[in-house]
Write a structure and sequence with these properties.
mainly beta, two-stranded antiparallel sheet, 107 residues, 7 strands, 2 helices, SH3 type barrels, five-stranded antiparallel sheet
Length: 107
Amino acid sequence: MEKVRSAKFCIGQVVAHLSGALRGAVVDVDVFIDPEVQAALGREPENGDQPYYRLLAETDQGPILAYVGEDELIADFTGEPVHHPAAREVFDGFKGGRYHRDARALH
């Protein structure tokens, strides 16, 4: 029987990398690593058998789009928004420590 996968974090949730190198808002979730991303890496990920998250992230060097495995992330409880210029384009607002989107805008 195949194991059912579920993501630990949801769209709009703010997360942080275990290393402290970045904080980001989840914009998309892949149940397994995206094969195109894996091909671009040119190597097998350490743990591709887990959910991967696309994040609008902030780092010390500025905003980035990150693709990170679930085992490298923790929930961010600062209650602060992520400082990324695309956040206003992707989400409708920030309230209660997470980003929100208008359900009518989703496809």
